[in-house]
Amino acid sequence: MPPAPALYGYPPVRIHPDDRDAALQHAPNAPFPTPQNSGHVQQPYAFSLQDHFNAMREETAARHHNHRTSDTSSSATSIAPLATGPPPSFRGVAHNTLALDGMMTPPPSEKAVAGEREYLNSPEEIHYMQVFVEEVGIWMDSLDKEKHFSRLIPYHSLKCPMLLNAFLACGVKHLTLTHPDCKDDKALHYYDTATTQLLRSLQNPDRNTAECATTAVVLNVYEIMSEKPGQRMRMNHIAGARALIRECGWDARSTGIGAACFWLNIGMEVLSCLAFNWQTSWDPDQWGLNLDFADKPEMGASGGGDEEEWVHRIFYIVARIANFRASIPKFQEASPHDEQIRLGNRLALWQELKRLCDRWNNACPRTMHPFGYLYPTHSRSKSAFPNVWLIKRAAIIGRLFYHTAQCILAQTNPMEPARASEEMRVLQLHHAHQVCGIVAHTRDRGIASVAIRSLAIASAVLTDPREQEEVLCILERIQTESGWGLGSVVGELKRGWGWGDRSPLAMFYEQDPQQHQQQQQQPLLQQPQQTTAGPVAGHSGSKVNPLSFADFSLPNHPYQNWYEPPNRTNGFAPQGLL
Q1: What percentage of the chain has pLDDT greater than the value 70?
Q2: Tell me, what DSSP letter sits at residue 151?
Q3: Would the pTM count as exceeding 0.90?
Q4: Angle separating helix axes 209-225 and 161-178, nearest 10 degrees
């Protein structure tokens, strides 16, 4: 897909990096363990706004809080303007506005309508949105029962230009990841446009806060998809999306789009914390989640609540376990007495988390347990892992989280370090086989983000060369389907397994028969000394969670020089959102 000289008739203007940095001073560098083979050149993002940032700042300084609808038409000719002012329900022909509708390719019949469409009628836009819905939205909705991002919010984006442009950016980005011949120009242009529209909207105290938060969440997904290993791009919407979610008052008690944005945003953070050994910036006990099951172990396997609610509960447990692991002290206390007290406190917390995991497993609905289970010796497939058949996506994700949590607990028992305890190693290996078996025998692309992190953590304990080879084949399959660059995950696994230049499977069969027999009989005793390496198991990387600064009450808050506090009389309900 060769890039056009000028995208949709808009000249491709680029901004100088210094101007760009001045425009967005709101998020620290943040490595995220997700799609990484972006086609972006390694340079700061260009926003196509070089000639307009100064004018926009002057406009802001002139009005401050006296924002007028008539002021919102952009002077930019290289981007689509955003119709701010009244909420979406008040936009339209009734005000006799003649602004463009804010789309990248506005339908000729609707150019006079301010910011709304009845439907898409551009072949390219339809194609990009189809890709988003079918390939990107499915994993964004992995924790959302109503599937807002793939089924509902696209309809609202027809009357919210910045949200539609953010969706289109993600759709085109997926194409560039899965089709190397596709260029990044269009994806970047959609991203630039949506970002500019969001910044302008954040200057309006009467803005629709729900639209802004949702757009920032989607733009953050685009940025995660655009990462490259070893060449981390500056993340412009990580902290911004979280700060806007908090501003809207969304948490685990929210419904609709608020719940969808909360769980997607918190989900990406926890997966990153697992990868980089961070503590979560939002205490899981402050999420507002219903945890009745923890106090009612007698609920039994037919426990109440729908499957998604139980997924949220095990995810809460995983987040707490991630915090427990990230808080492991590096040094012992100077006093033996103090060290014993510390170990006792750590052990009590570990036991509490273990009980939570076990109670979740005993109380969750029957539909979240395997419907079928075949040992490798009984399966017709050539897999080295058991065939674990779970029917619903929520069940698949819930079991992956459960077994991942158990793997980490086995690694972090304060009184029985994983390397010193045979019992803990056997427990790790059991749960690792369950994780690998679930992922190996499912083709649901909606679980990709969870599957990658679970595989990276669980398979670090594997010692059988055949199993290790199969894990790499599974990761290769996920990379082919999603376009996500998993080179760093694969590299860390190989180092943890002690691989050299050759495949261990080849070296395995080059051994003499006696060595071969010994390795078959004692696989656990040959476990590498370092079973948890790098970001695979979460023991390397920066200790600073970039979301620690995601609060507009802090002096270094996101969207510096653009953010204006909203008019509190508007409230924070998802105005007009489905």
Answers
A1: 67
A2: I
A3: no
A4: 10
